[in-house]
Each structure stands twice: as C-alpha cells, then as structure tokens.
Amino acid sequence: MTAQRLDGRKLAKKIEHELAPKVAALASEIGRPPRLVVVLVGDVAASASYVKSKAAAAKRVGITADVFSIPESTTTAELVSTVEAIGRDEHGPADGILVQLPLPDHVDARAVLDAVPPDRDVDGFHAVNAGLLSQGRPHFIPCTAAGVQRMLLDAGVETRGKHAVIVGRSDIVGKPLALLLASRGPGGDATVSVCHSHTSNLKEVTQQADILIAAVGIPQLITADMVKPGAVVVDVGINRVLDGDTSRLVGDVDYDPVSTIAEAISPVPGGVGPLTVAMLLENTFSAAKERQNLSQTAE
Ligand code: GUN
C-alpha cells in the first residue's frame, strides 16, 4: 500500500484563491488593504525564512505585511512596549499582530505574547484566546493546529470516535490541536492522547493511533514500527539535518517506510507548513473584518 499524500501546498493555494476576493472586497470597504504586522527579533535564519514566506503569502492575497526587525539584544520591557505601541496603531493600522517565535532566551515570551491585544492576536497565542479555545468558544485558533484540522477535513478523514495521538505538548501545536480534535463537531469528537518526553513506552501508544500527529521537533522520531497499518499520519516537524556538505529538511516522521503502511501521510516540506501560513491569512482577514464591523457599529 502506498499512502495518499496530504498535499498542503495544493490546499493552501485553494485557500488563498478563495480568500483573495474577500480581502479585495474588505479593502474597498475599509479604504485600505488589511494589514499584518510581524515582529521578528534577532537573526535566526529559520525564523527569518518563515517570516518571509508569511509576508509573501499575505501579499499574494492582498494583505499588507510589514516586518519590524528588532535586535537580539532587546529586553522584555522594550519588546512589550513596542508590541503595545503597535497595538495602539502608533506604527500604522495593525489589524493583525504576530510575534515570531522563538524569542531569545533572555526575553519573557509570555509577557510579550500577552502584550498583543487579543482581538489582533492572529497567532492565537494570547492567554485570552487560549482560554476561549479551551472552553470550546474559539476566536483566533493557533495557525498550525488549525492547519492540521483543515488538512484532515479537506481530505475527508473522519475524526469522530477515532483515537488521535499527538506526539508533542507545545502551546503552539500539541495543546491547541488536542483541544480542537476533542471539540464537538466536524474535525473533532476524537479521543485524544497527548504524548511527550515523559511518556513511557511511546511506541505502545502511537501504535494505537487511527490518526497520528507528530509535533515534537525530533527528526524522523516516528518510524514504521510505531504506526498502525492504515493510520493517517500528519507530520508537523520541520527539522534541518546535515546531509554531507549540504542540509535538508525532514519531518518528525520517517516518511518513506511509514508511507508504505499508512493510509495517508503529509510530506515535509509541502505538508502542514503551507497550511500554517494559509490559516494566518484567514485569521488576519477575520481580524480586519471584525475591526471593520466594530467601527461601523460604533458609527
Ligand atoms: N514559530 C514556529 N511556529 C510559529 C507560529 O505558528 N507562529 C509564530 N509566531 N512563531 C512560530
């Protein structure tokens, strides 16, 4: 059996195609394009590259994206005050605000993320948005978690009553995804297990998964013997590994052997990554739309 390839690039393109006319209509209503402000701290090559992809995708659908590059040496207090100023529109209208992670170790990331006004928090990382999601009344959903759920929905993967095993318990992916898959309704109603570095006998748990999601950041951790035949496997990992003199990207799943036993599998690159960006565009559009609706109500 060769698994169906869950093509995130193709789906992201479709999402962009559907979003662009809505963005154009909103832009003519507001009198300017929706705008996303990205805060990028330091010079981590991977972060700079992700931010570049996000800005390029925003441009493709008609969203303005401006990147604020801040030196690595910044303090928590400085960063909080910059984000607060952006949130007060002191640097132009900011419909969506995103602080690219990771931040340098000396910065209190929580304090910075909580400085983003929740109604512009297009990453869904603010405590208010995390709380709303946990209560089953989501507002902005973290983009990677939303992207994985969208991928499953688009591929017609039934989640109701299935055992979904998530490897990784991060605030960015594992936790929000567990909430989404266990939530009521389409793309939810699954029985969810969350595994992490203290899970004893990981293989025993992953072998029970109807839907296995790897989001742990360990190259090719998930090998074929850990996967139940016929499972749907989603790989969230993006790991750069050395290959002789060059480097290449690999996921958290050992793709080739696993693809011979899985029913469907997402590749790296070209799987979840493009959907993370597409969900960011949708969230930014929603933030701008909500803001426009609010300003009309106030008139
Ligand atoms: N770093 C890795 N993934 C993400 C993400 O989804 N959003 C932000 N802001 N930073 C990240």
What does this structure look like?
By secondary structure, the chain is an alpha/beta fold. Helix content is 41%, strand content 17%. The protein contains 10 helices and 11 strands. A 6-stranded parallel beta sheet has the order 1-11-8-7-5-6. Strand 9 and strand 10 form a beta hairpin. Helix 2 (45-61) crosses helix 10 (272-298) and helix 6 (143-154) crosses helix 7 (174-182). The N and C termini lie far apart (60 Å). The mean pLDDT is 97. Guanine binds at residues 98-101, 123, 143-144, 172, 276.
Query: Major sheet, described briefly?
Result: 6 strands, parallel
Shape: globular
Gyration radius, in Å? 19 Å
Strand neighbour order, sheet with most strands: 1-11-8-7-5-6
- The SS-based structural class is alpha/beta
Tell me the quaternary state: single chain
- What helical percentage do the residues reach? 40-55%
Q: What percent of residues are in strands? A: 15-25%
Separate helix tally: 10
Bound heterogens, unique: guanine
Instruction: Tell me the series of helices and strands, N- to C-terminal.
Output: EHEHEHEHHHEHEHEEEEHEH
Distance between the termini: 60 Å
Summarize model confidence as the mean pLDDT.
97
Which consecutive residue ranges, at least 5 long each, have pLDDT under 50? none
Q: How many beta-strand runs?
A: 11
